[in-house]
Amino acid sequence: MDDDVILRGPLGEMATAEASPAGLNPTDLYAGAISWWSAAVSPAVSIVSWPSAPLTVWMSHVHDDASDGSRLVDALRRLLGGSAPLATHHDVTNGRMYSAAVHSTRRAEHAGTGTSALLLTGSPFTAGPGSSWRSPLLESHTRMAWDGRHIIPTRSFRRHRSAEKSAPPHVGALWTPSLKAWRGFLPTDAATWSRVLHLAQRSAPAPLARASSDRWQHDLAEAYRWAFHTRPCLTYTPRAGELLDAVCEAEDRWDTALPEKHGGFFLRVGDHVSRMAGALAAAERTAIHGTHIKAAWSLARRAVKDTCRLVSMDRDMVHQIVEYVDDAMRHVSTSEGQASPVLSNTPEGQTYGEYAHGNRSPSGINAVRKLKQWYQDSCQICATTLVLRSPRHRYSEAAHIRAKEDGGPDLTENLLCLCPNCHVRFDGGAFVLTDDLTVVDTVKDRLGAKLKRHQWHYINLDHVRHHRHHWISRNPAPLTALPSERQSN
C-alpha cells in the first residue's frame, strides 16, 4: 500500500518512460515532476476554491547520506526544462540568497526572457547541531510564498518600486536534503514544513529498456501553451469535490490524535491534494475530476507514511487515519457529473491593471519591451522583421487590440507585435481576429493564417472581440470569410 501511487497523465507517462534510464525510482521522478510542473504553470493557473493561492506543490525528497540528491533535479531539468521552463536556484539557505533569487527572476520576467516562476532546489538545510533552519527571514518569506501573499521585498525593488506594486514570483520548492540535515528540524518548524510533502527516496529498479513513446513531451508542451494562453481557473466536478472533502475532514484527526510536533506535519494534506490534483488536471487541459483527486491522494498518502518513518512517529495512529481517509473516499457515491466551465483568471469586470493572483501588471514600457523581446521584432501577422541600418537594427510596433481611447490597457494581453504596415491595417479594421486568433482580411474577404504567438503571450479574447465587433459593425457588406458565430460577438 505504501508505494501504491497512481502515475497519471503525461507526467506519469514521463516517469514510467524515463525513470529507469535516469537511474531513478518512477514514483520519485513522478513526484518531482509534479513539483516542477506546478511551479512552471503557477503564474497562469489557479484553482477556484482558492484562487489567490499559487498552484505550487512543495516537496522534500530525503535521501541517505551516501546518495546524491541532485540526480532528481538534473533529470527534471533535462526532461521538463524545454516544455515547462522556469528559473531554478540551488541551495538557497538564507534570506539574502532568497532575495537575490527573487530579484533575478523578476528581472528575467520584466525583460521578457522568462516567466515569474521560480523553483528552489538543493537544500535549505545545513547538517549540524540544533536546528538547520537558521534564517527566520527565509522562513517567513517561504511561508508567504506558499500561502499566496504578494509582498516579498528585495532591497533593490524596495528602492525603486513601492512594495504594493512589487509582486513576487511564484515560488516552488523541490528540496533534496540528506536525512541527517533534514532531521535538524526543531518542533517549532512544523508550521513551515506542513507546507511541504516529505518523501523518502527509493532505490531505482533494475534498468529497463526505454519506452518508445514520447507522446508525453507533446502533451506537456501543448498543456504549457494552453495554460499561458487561457489563464485557467480550474473548477471541480461534483465527485472531485466530495473526494477532496473526505481528505480535508481528516485534518482535525491529525491535530488531535498526534502530538503537536508530529500532527503539525499533516495539517495541510487537503491543500497538498488539491494543488497536486490541479497540477495533474492542468497537464491534461481539463477541470479537476475525481481521478485527479485519487491520484493526488495516493501520492500524499505515501508522503504521510514516509514522514511517519522519518520522524519516528506513532505508526499505528498515523495508519489508522490514512485508512479512515481511504474508507471515506471509497464511500463517496456522487457521480462524476459536469464541472462548471473552466474560468479565466482575467474575467470580465476585473480591473485590467491586475493579473491573476492579484499581481499588478508592469508599466506600459515594460510590457512593450517584453513583447518585442518575445518576438524579436518579428510581426505576428506577416512574420516580417524590419531590419534597419541604424543602431536599433530591428524595428517593430506594439499595436493595441482594444484601442486606448476605448479603455484598452498597456498590458501584453492587449498588445500585438506588428510591422508598421500590419499595424496600420489592424488599426484601420483591414485585419480582424477570430476567437481562435485566425487573421481575417476584411478588404479581400478571406481567411489568413493564424496569428503567431509566443508561449507566454496570453491574449485577452475580450479585447479581440471588442476590436472585431467595432469594425464589422461599420462594414456595410457581410464578410463570408468570417464564421457567422464570430460575427455576433
For the record, give the distance between the C-alpha atoms at the N and C termini, rounded to a whole number: 53 Å
The value of Rg in angstroms is 24 Å
* Fraction of residues in β-strands: 5-15%
Work out the helix count.
19
Q: Please state how the strands of the largest beta sheet are arranged side by side.
A: 3-4-5-2-6
What average pLDDT do the residues reach? 82
Notes on the protein architecture:
The chain has 489 residues and is α/β, with parallel strands linked by helices. It has 19 helices and 15 strands. It has helices at 9-22, 26-41, 70-80, 95-111, 136-147, 155-160, 179-182, 190-193, 215-230, 238-248, 251-257, 260-263, 269-283, 290-311, 315-330, 364-375, 420-427, 461-472, 484-487, and strands at 46-47, 59-62, 87-90, 117-122, 170-175, 197-200, 232-234, 343-344, 386-387, 394-395, 397-400, 415-418, 431-433, 438-441, 446-450. Helix 1 packs across helix 2, helix 1 packs across helix 9 and helix 2 (26-41) crosses helix 13. The longest helix is centred in the middle third of the chain and has 22 residues, at 290-311. It is elongated, with a radius of gyration of 24 Å. It starts with 8 loop residues before the first helix and ends with a helix.
